[in-house]
Design a protein that fits this description.
One of its GO terms (biological process) is Mo-molybdopterin cofactor biosynthetic process. Belongs to the MoeA family. It holds the Pfam family MoeA_N. Strands 7-4-6-5-9-8 form a six-stranded mixed sheet, with no helix packed on it. It has a six-stranded mixed sheet with strand order 16-13-17-21-20-18, sandwiched between helices. A five-stranded mixed β-barrel has the order 22-24-23-25-26. The protein starts with 6 loop residues before the first helix and ends in a 7-residue tail after the last strand. Helix 4 packs across helix 5 (about 255-265). The protein has four domains: about 5-20 and about 170-315, MoaB/Mog-like domain (Molybdenum Cofactor Biosythetic Enzyme, Chain A, 3-Layer(aba) Sandwich), CATH 3.40.980; about 25-45 and about 140-170, Molybdopterin biosynthesis moea protein, domain 2, CATH 3.90.105.10; about 50-135, Molybdopterin biosynthesis moeA protein, domain 3, CATH 2.170.190.11; about 325-400, MoeA, C-terminal, domain IV (Beta-clip), CATH 2.40.340.10. By secondary structure, it is of the alpha/beta class. It has helices spanning about 5-15, 155-160, 200-210, 225-235, 255-265, 295-315, 365-370, and strands spanning about 25, 40, 50, 55-60, 70-75, 90, 100-105, 110-115, 115-120, 130-135, 145, 170, 175-180, 185, 195-200, 215-220, 240-245, 265-270, 275, 280-285, 290-295, 325-330, 340-350, 350-355, 370-375, 390-395. It binds ligand LQZAQKY5 and molybdate ion (MOO). The site of ligand LQZAQKY5 has 26 residues, from helix 3 and helix 6.
Length: about 400
């Protein structure tokens, strides 16, 4: 068996196996947290014409001191049809069209009105253009508002509508099947003999991908029997991605690789030079991609975070599928590294990071108390407190 792959090479190989899924058009609210499959180009100018940014009076740009005669009103949705000459003012509301001839807006707090007579009592608009949103001040028709592969945030939902689009192009949501396997797994956590452990990885993985727009099916726990594992793979016929957890290592009962071979999948790589997560495997059958995650719960989490989430983003058309990293300073000494690059659990607060106490790949409590992974290179010397290290924030699936 070849040497474990370096992390970046393994991630790259996985991402190259996957093509973005077919394009579909959905209404903008349904596109939230998905990725643009086409650049977002403005189909209109916003605002389409000059508008008031305040409630007050529209006056001519060369007549900022008054007094004025109020000759009409421009309310939001009801423009004033006339012209504002020097000496005239038009009552105007926020978001109403600026009448022809007007060059500034005096806020109502700065004037006193008696019938149609208006005088300045406060500061006045000061300069022409004050309190006016000029046409196109947000964007103009034809402008590229967001690039292909950008993540669609709540602001993008509004921007898409504001730009005149009923629909937005995204990629079909990935379909994911998660398979728990292992004879020791108890389906009922409250009925678990000492030789068993509650099956928790499948639920954790489903929760981990919950922030990603995808369809999830879960199967298992499946016993350590080849025919049962093959049947579980067969049952995942509609899945774009099949995730197994457990049975990926070298033990006599680690049957994921033989099951994949019997099912007709082609192994792309097995083993990555990281801790936890070394026995990760990637295979493919046709367009279906299989990610075999190690069974240790923290190993499953870390490999899902480093591989599964980026894979789902790639299938969904994300421009930048890999997780976000940043630098933070250690609050305590970090022990020397070993043979493998290690992703240690830690707590990140305002630029400083504290490694968690439990770093075993079965230590779920320490994982749950952490909010980042600390990237410690292989063979790292002891790093004293204060040293900057690379960290991966875990919130939000590790993306902004
Ligand atoms: N001789 C060697 N032994 C091991 C090696 C090695 O290189 N040589 N690698 C170790 C590493 S690293 C890891 S990681 C584990 C991964 O092994 P598997 O993927 O085969 O996982 P299992 O043996 O099936 O389970 C490991 C552990 O995790 C628990 N588990 C499994 N599935 C679940 C689940 N769905 N929910 C909760 N817990 C689960 C399982 O009970 C075991 O305790 O192999 C090392 N061994
Ligand atoms: O790599 Mo294993 O995932 O150390 O626990």
């Amino acid at each position: 068996m070849s040497a474990p792959l370096p992390l970046e090479e393994a991630q790259q190989r996985l991402l190259e196996l996957a093509e973005p899924l077919p394009l579909e058009r959905v209404d903008p609210p349904s596109a939230l947290d998905r990725w643009l499959a086409e650049p977002l180009v403005a189909a209109r100018t916003q605002p389409a014409c000059a508008m008031s940014a305040m409630d007050g009076y529209a006056v001519a740009g060369n007549d900022l001191s008054g007094p004025w005669q109020v000759i009409g009103e421009s309310a939001a949705g009801h423009p004033f049809a006339g012209f504002v000459a020097a000496g005239h003012a038009v009552r105007i509301s926020t978001g109403a069209v600026l009448p022809d001839g007007a060059g500034a807006v005096v806020v109502q707090e700065d004037v006193s009105r008696d019938g149609d007579r208006l005088i300045l009592t406060g500061d006045g608009p000061g300069s022409p253009g004050k309190h006016i949103r000029r046409a196109g001040s947000d964007f103009s028709e034809g402008a590229v508002l967001a690039d292909l592969g950008a993540r669609i945030s709540p602001a993008h939902v509004a921007l898409t509508l504001s730009a005149g689009h009923r629909h937005v192009a995204v990629r079909r949501m990935p379909r994911l099947t998660i398979i728990d396997s292992g004879d020791e797994l108890a389906a009922d956590p409250a009925d678990c003999a000492p030789h068993q452990v509650p099956a928790s990885n499948g639920a954790m993985l489903a929760a981990l991908v919950a922030s990603h727009r995808c369809e999830v099916n879960r199967r298992g726990p499946i016993p350590d029997q080849l025919d049962e594992l093959i049947a579980a793979l067969e049952a995942a016929a509609g899945a774009d991605v099949i995730v197994t957890s457990g049975g990926a290592s070298v033990g006599d009962h680690d049957l994921v690789i033989p099951a994949l071979q019997a099912w007709g999948a082609e192994l792309d790589f097995w083993k990555v030079a990281i801790k936890p997560g070394k026995p990760l495997l990637v295979a493919r059958r046709g367009r279906q991609i299989v990610l075999g995650l190690p069974g240790n719960p923290v190993s499953s989490f870390v490999t899902a975070w480093l591989f599964l989430l980026p894979l789902l983003r790639r299938l969904s058309g994300a421009a930048d599928p890999l997780p976000m990293k940043r630098t933070a300073h250690l609050t305590a000494d970090l022990a020397a590294g070993g043979e493998r690059r290690e992703f240690l659990r830690g707590v990140l607060t305002e630029g400083v990071v504290t490694p968690a106490l439990g770093q075993d790949s079965g230590a779920l409590a320490a994982l749950a108390g952490s909010n980042c992974l600390i990237d410690r290179p292989a063979h790292s010397p002891v790093l004293p407190a204060g040293t900057p290290v690379l960290v991966y924030p875990l919130e939000n699936g590790g993306i902004a």
